[in-house]
Amino acid sequence: MKVVTTLLKEHPFFTGLADKDLAFLSGCTSNSHYKEGEYLARENTPANHFFLIRSGRVAVETFVPNYGPLCLMTLHGGDIFGWSWLYPPYLSAFDARALTSVRSLKLGGQCLRDKCEKEPRLGFELMKRFTKVATERLQAARIQLLDLYGPHPSQGIPRCDP
Amino acid sequence: MIPELWRVTHRREEFPGTITLSLTREAGGPSPIQPGQFNMLYAFGAGEAAISLSGSSASPAEPLTHTIKGQGLATQALCKLEVGTQLGIRGPFGQGWPTHLAANRPLVIIAGGLGLAPLRPLIYSFLKGHLPARRLQVFYGARRPEEMLYQPELGHWRSSFELVTSVDHASTDWNGHIGVITDPLRVTHLECNDALVFVCGPEIMMRFCIQVLLHKGVTESNIYLSMERNMKCAIGICGHCQWGPNFVCKDGPVFCYRDIRSWFQINSL
């Protein structure tokens, strides 16, 4: 059975991170498994964890009244979920639901914050990695907003002209 | 060039507003056309539209296949054509995909929305063993699962080569990726040193895909795009589709990214 440090090292989010940092982080990490339909996180509940998805599919959803859950994106092996543990009020912004059996590594938010406070160099390294993922997701969300495959902009998408 | 008479022999609605027509020439005879080339389809009384080949090009004797999205007057009229009705066709025109470069190399196809249509002939060629690519990976992004082209074929394709699908919006019973096509493109292993990449879709989607491809190490000279502009004469005379020094109808629609990079990044062109 692989040790947690090895599993952390294998995940793309931690590619290139020094062994000593991985060992340091492994103290915050546990292996977790979710069956299809189980939630990794629920919207507006305490965001205590950060997930490295090893395999399976996860839907990032929000609940729309009179409609039901709306899937914003799907995550797969190699993706991460959750950075709400980084900032007050430490509440999850979305639901994360396993669409299939999901294997993940779960890192405790409080534990990570404490470690990053003690080791600012590692904290900055992690922050850069989170920022990169957040930027990619923001860019993806903006592209989705463009509705690229829908009607041509000349056919009625509002512009920002005054 | 005067349009020849053709007749609709088969019509399939891909999803509301988008149809695929099979066409045969009234006078008979072959109709050689290469993947990536287009014809000018003329709906009598409504006008002409440039439409890429979307079916097999293996034999000139096969019916011509075009997939059309009704957006303007001419394309909406073409979408309404029923089996048995006539239309006019001029063509083929333009430069197609440089399939000779695919010999013994990995081929990556990236399609967005209707952009899958001009790339489908390449998929057919690969499946029939006519395209000498060593490996095929196809990334296909669409708006919703029900707005994906060629749905009856996707399952077969998935079992024949690596097909990654992504939609912008879907319910969670959809089995593919939800999000933009650049996400799976970013995380999928490509043989970037050697891969030949053909891209067709909305221009902005192609721009974001190119960013990912270059970041992954694909060289500009290995990326080919099919561009879309308002084409009228189709022979490089009228100037409707002029794009920098190029006429998309004559010099394209398929261009090597290396050769058009400077025009690709000018907003008003």
Kindly describe this structure.
The complex is a heterodimer of chains A (162) and B (269). By secondary structure, chain A is of the alpha+beta class. Chain A has helices at residues 4-10, 19-26, 109-118, 120-145, and strands at 29-34, 39-41, 49-55, 58-64, 68-75, 80-81, 95-98, 102-108. Helices cover 31% and strands 27% of the residues of chain A. In chain A, the strands form two sheets. A four-stranded antiparallel sheet of chain A has the order 1-8-3-6. Chain A has a four-stranded antiparallel sheet with strand order 2-7-4-5, with no helix packed on it. In chain A, strand 4 and strand 5 (68-75) form a beta hairpin. The longest helix of chain A has 26 residues, at 120-145. The N and C termini of chain A lie far apart (62 Å). With 269 residues, chain B is α/β, with parallel strands linked by helices. Helix content of chain B is 21%, strand content 32%. In chain B, strand 8, helix 3 and strand 9 (162-167) form a beta-alpha-beta unit. The mean pLDDT of chain B is 90. The A-B interface holds A 12, 59, 61, 69, 71-74, 76, 78-79, 97, 99, 136, 139-140, 143-144, 146-152, 155 and B 71, 112-114, 141-143, 147, 168-172, 176-180, 182-183, 186-187, 201-202, 204-205, 208.
